[in-house]
Design a protein that fits this description.
InterPro entries: FLCN/SMCR8_DENN, FLCN_DENN_C_sf, Folliculin, Folliculin_DENN. Belongs to the folliculin family. One of its GO terms (cellular component) is lysosomal membrane. The protein is of the alpha/beta class. The chain has two domains: about 130 residues, Rossmann fold, CATH 3.40.50.12430; about 90 residues, Arc Repressor Mutant, subunit A. It is about 55% helix and about 10% strand. It has a five-stranded mixed beta sheet, with helices on one face. It is globular, with a radius of gyration of 22 Å. The two termini are about 25 Å apart.
Length: about 290
């Protein structure tokens, strides 16, 4: 796991969002005039204002979107489908991707934070778009994409009971649609059900939920590694693969799809290492 996690940590995708977030933070703080920027109250107000207009955690996002919309969105994220957000607020979109990406291994994350044109799914599985961008009709009707449109909320859709620190998101209406809506009675991947269980457990703090996510991802990446070695390296027959999936507790359709997508997140170094050990079995035998 250490070797694999090092491969994930070195991915280029990890660097891009952070730099943009830093720029966004600098822009927000620059709203103070040179004279008032010396006042700590002004800086505190700006930092707080910036934080209020973004998603803070998966639990926060689930509260804002609603349980059913969040489940649909999370399902598409875990399956590797393209997740598209259309909004004017780039910071809001960036925060959404920062939160959603925590459900995936680093190697499975490809983000284009904000674009003035639609980008194909092979280029990114997280895509932020400005509101005026036209999305191809075949994408809107595709079962392999989900769209979140962020609109200005009308008075009738405002939530009067939201907590004070959620008021800035209260001005938005979030519409989640897909060509393949997730049925309410669909079992879904096992990891999604466990994530939802952690998010709904109010006895667990946000930090504890984060640790649960780390453990769940490690658990399922271990299954991915076993499956990769079994199918790609050892070239076992399909019947044996089905038996292995049952042993791993991943024989259901959604779990199989998830494992195949997560397999793309394995680093090239790790894959090459496994393949090289198979190609030269005599070297290991000679050492014994």
């Amino acid at each position: 796991l250490r070797e694999e996690s090092e491969g994930w940590d070195g991915s280029e995708e990890e660097e891009k969002p952070s730099s943009q977030a830093d720029v966004a933070e600098g822009q927000e703080l620059s709203k103070c005039s040179p004279e008032t920027s010396l006042m700590p109250d002004c800086n505190r107000w700006n930092v707080a204002h910036r934080r209020l207009s973004v998603f803070r955690s998966l639990r926060h996002m689930r509260q804002v979107l609603g349980a059913s919309a969040f489940r649909m969105l999370a399902w598409h994220v875990l399956m590797g489908n393209q997740v598209i957000w259309k909004a004017r607020d780039m910071d809001l979109v960036q925060s959404a991707f920062d939160v959603l990406r925590t459900m995936l291994p680093v190697g499975c994350v490809r983000i284009i934070p904000y674009s003035d044109q639609y980008e194909e799914a092979y280029r990114c599985n997280f895509l932020g778009l400005s509101p005026h961008v036209q999305i191809p009709s075949h994408i809107l009707s595709s079962e392999f994409a989900v769209l979140v449109e962020v609109r200005a909320a009308t008075r009738s859709t405002l939530y009067p009971t939201l907590l004070e620190d959620e008021q800035s998101l209260n001005k938005y209406e979030f519409v989640v649609t897909s060509g393949s809506p997730v049925a309410a009675d669909r079992v879904g991947p096992t990891i999604l059900n466990k994530i939802e269980a952690a998010l709904t457990n109010q006895n667990l703090s946000v930090d504890v939920v984060d640790q649960c996510l780390v453990c769940l991802k490690e658990e399922w990446m271990n299954k991915v590694k076993v499956l990769f070695k079994f199918t790609k390296v050892d070239s076992r027959p399909k019947e044996d693969t089905q038996k292995l999936l049952s042993i791993l507790g991943a024989a259901e359709e959604d779990n199989v799809k998830l494992l195949k997508f997560w397999m793309t997140g394995l680093s090239k170094t790790y894959k090459s290492h496994l393949m090289s050990t198979v190609r030269s079995p005599t070297s290991s035998e000679s050492r014994n």
